[in-house]
């Protein structure tokens, strides 16, 4: 990008490298004289169309995304495992409720550790390498669960799968954002959340049909698909450029954009930006709070705070209890809840590159606010014995509005924006911080939900409504629109001088 090249003297070596990539295709990208005939104009138009509409490149991008989101599906499988297996595991192994509660929640501890190390791991061994490490941890964890004879091995297995979840939650959206063309980046990155939801739902359903040990073995399948599939797809070109693997960078970008596509402009933009970052010192946690990085940190961390403290994991983990407390049949309510998540998340994926990130966040946060207000109202009516016959249906509507709104925007879009706003020199440490905040918030909300409900049922949802109201204000004032812009354009616009 021109601004970056003017801000930092990149030297002759960078120009030579950019020209080396551009040379075979430079004639099509930079015309010094206009076409002299209509036939020449048609040929140039056809060349441009080929550059941006290459079927081979689209196929490779889609294949790479499909393989990467196997990690997201694994993430969902780990999250959903404890719900359908509780009674069977406690009976088979003689666990107390407290021991099983530790098993169900200790995965968050592993995920926090995974979040802290995810950025460094992905920066050191690459995005594909980080996904391999996550898969190995998850496989080890599932095997520990399968062979468990008591609480200790169960907990060790859960911590291992939790670590894999923590790394997956960072590296998958980052990998997708770095390989996707700008016009498809939002929709493809949303596939991360879609497959997490799919993993949770499928695990919940299968868990009612098979034993808990068999379900643990089934959890290994997405890891096997991911490990084998990674041999078929290229590494992130931006990571390859960052570590100086010039030939691999060029090869990976050509695979993703098509063998006959003109990659000179995109390659030059990436290399210019990487070269600019080479003059900056190696980032550490304290560097994130420098003035130039403060804006992306506020946006990334802020969205995760509002995503979690808006109450999602309290409602998600205890939805059956909420239905029972409101007087609605919990089995019917839970089935409706599970069925609505996947299609609404898919609908959001279709809209994200059409409507944009900000409109989806506005609609989503507004719907979360309305859903919480409805839930708070229903429990207020129950406590004060006002129109008790309306309480169950009002609670059902509130939960459906809440989960539909979350699935459309606040579930996926914060992860998409997180993968877009951090410059590559701080993406590792920045992504680790954001992911750690997310998992910490998840633990706090799920741990405190029952205490809040015992304090005041309608007050609990009133607090969540307030948080979601603040989220609307946060989005309106601070969150940028990133639709249709390259990562380099987004990050340059957020750099505070």
From TrEMBL:
Citing just one GO molecular function, the answer is: sugar transmembrane transporter activity
> Where is region (Disordered) located?
1-51
Residues in Major facilitator superfamily (MFS) profile domain copies: 64-483
User: So which domain of life are we looking at?
Assistant: Eukaryota
Q: List, as start-end ranges, the regions of compositional bias called Basic and acidic residues.
A: 1-20
Q: Which UniProt keywords apply?
A: Membrane, Sugar transport, Transmembrane, Transmembrane helix, Transport
List the PROSITE patterns.
Answer: MFS, SUGAR_TRANSPORT_1
According to the record, the segments passing through the membrane are 58-82, 102-122, 129-147, 162-180, 187-209, 215-233, 293-320, 332-352, 359-381, 393-417, 429-449, 455-475
Q: Where is the signal peptide?
A: none
How the protein sits in the membrane?
A: Multi-pass membrane protein
A Gene Ontology biological process in which this protein takes part is: transmembrane transport
The cellular location(s) given in this protein's UniProt record come to: Membrane
Q: Which GO terms describe its cellular component?
A: membrane
Keyword Transmembrane attached = yes
What does the similarity note say? Belongs to the major facilitator superfamily. Sugar transporter (TC 2.A.1.1) family.
Q: What's the protein name?
A: Sugar transporter ERD6-like 7
The taxonomic lineage of its organism, from the top, reads: Eukaryota, Viridiplantae, Streptophyta, Embryophyta, Tracheophyta
- Gene field: LOC104586885
